[in-house]
DNA sequence: ATGAAAGCGCTAACAC
DNA sequence: GTGTTAGCGCTTTCAT
């Protein structure tokens, strides 16, 4: 693996290392001809600067980390797509880390970033995360962090989300409008920002429309398909709701499964609406009414915010919430 | 951002930099007590070694790159999951690059890896890639490459795939068994290994079962949903097939859409089977018969192969194909 | 058992 | 306009 580095270029061109370095970075005090010679040879030999050397020297890695709870999930997949698009455009590299909703993993992954491996972090926290010391520590060390989707308000930084409260309210109201009298909520961890907001939106609508507000209409789902189906089934049997609002796609699919098991017809016996970014929601049986988030744009926005502050030092991340609107798309699962 | 490095540890402990370094790496010629003191302080101060410094010094980055054509795709999503699992287990970091099926992007991304940024590469090539010079160049430079899914046979290395030919043959035969007399194939780029094999499997079955083998029963889809639907629609109108074998999930969904437009009933008017890793294929309307690949395991295997050779130098990647079996899952879309 | 010193490849003062 | 030099933080001979 004969490696071509600046030194070799300098030797071949009878120039100093410094001159070559400057020529490659298009510095003002190098003559045009020299620059051309250098660039020509660099191209010819397929020279690529060693990123570790320059990262070490400049304390910048042109790399960002993305920490997400899971990846087999349309939302995160789209968000990554947005993030990667921006990163590629601006010449950044992206490291992916998956916590699998495991707090301990999140902590140990964060530790790996204490040392300049990356210039910034995009994170959507795990559902089991309640203590944010690991992230505070990173921020204190000067690492810019942008939260997306599952944010944490106690951080002074940018947070990119959707209008979870409003959308949940609307989703619940939609079920009411379609004739539901008893609406259940399949909730995601209440310690999560989105879990909390989606719950609140649901509860407010329940209150406003004078629906039964029994605690047992609320199923706090876990991260285990089997168990979740069990819990949902129990709730169905006990409460016999005529409407279900699922906080995430997975729970909606679990409901479909449970309904099938119990011989319940959607939407006749029970109507279902869910947060979901499934591209083929319309091909489901029945097609699923969804609250769809602009996940790609969210990823793009979060990445753009982060990279902008990385590029110009004098634009530190301020404490702001960027809120995208989701859209409620009515399909058969909530038909009258 | 007061950074804690080896030098600082050494100062605080009244030891030399070298001793601290060795102590941290648990070297044999450091006394137990010294080691303990060093480790204790390192933990206390949350010391993390600077990865750029050690990468530069050791010519190893403990990082691998994953290049994939797209990410909004259940197959790749699962594969990444597998890759990430193995990487995390072995203390490797994973950089994600998406080519969006663009050859030029693939080339320029590959160039970024010429310089030691990563220790190895996992790749599934873009559908527009026909020239592999960029990858050969990397391999010549000594970078281990493992292919998965969309492989390239001309490389002397490990390739992890599924039994595409056999599965395609079986899928087509399945349609025949379900009564189809005229089967269309929605093909993915023939320059792709998988495109080629899936086509061959289809063609062999068509021949074996004496089905019409018109070229116009084969739709070579592009990478544009709109166009693909147009092409598929034309084919449907012209050929009126009673069976469709889709090489990838996206084309199956396009068929669902076209059938809906044309008022064709699946499976009565036309039966559909497809390669697909959609976790909720059974909730589609109608539920979709699929050839499902063990994508997670494929990712795991590819990563394991790569990391094994990275860990022990004397195990270079040999020219072998690791072939996983896919499973044909019959559902309503191919019912009699 | 510990330390001194060289150097990985690059950048950025600072000279000339 | 070009070259010299001193590190970035770490690993690794080689001395002691």
3D structure, described in words:
The structure is a homodimer of 336-residue chains. Chain A is of the alpha/beta class and 336 residues long. In chain A, 43% of the residues lie in helices and 16% in strands. Chain A has 12 helices and 12 strands. In chain A, the strands form 2 sheets. In chain A, strands 2-1-3-4-5-11 form a 6-stranded parallel beta sheet, sandwiched between helices. In chain A, α7 links the parallel β3 and β4. The longest helix of chain A is centred in the last third of the chain and has 17 residues. The first copy, chain A, is elongated. Chain A starts with 5 loop residues before the first helix and ends in a 7-residue tail after the last strand. Chain B binds a DNA duplex (16 and 16 nucleotides) through α2 and α4.
- Biggest sheet, spatial arrangement of strands of chain A: 2-1-3-4-5-11
Number of domains of chain A: 3
Q: Helical region count of chain A? A: 12
What's the alpha carbon Rg of chain A, rounded to whole Å? 25 Å
Number of strands of chain A: 12
How many angstroms does the end-to-end distance of chain A come to? Answer: 68 Å
- By CATH's scheme, which homologous superfamily of the largest domain in chain A applies? Response regulator
Instruction: Quickly name the level 1 CATH class of the largest domain in chain A.
Output: Alpha Beta
Q: What fold name goes in the CATH topology slot of the largest domain in chain A?
A: Rossmann fold
**What's the rounded overall pLDDT mean of chain A?**
95
Report the portion of residues of chain A in β strands. Answer: 15-25%
Sketch the major β-sheet of chain A: 6 strands, parallel
Low-confidence sequence ranges of chain A: none
Helix content bin of chain A = 40-55%
Architecture of the largest domain in chain A, according to CATH?
Answer: 3-Layer(aba) Sandwich
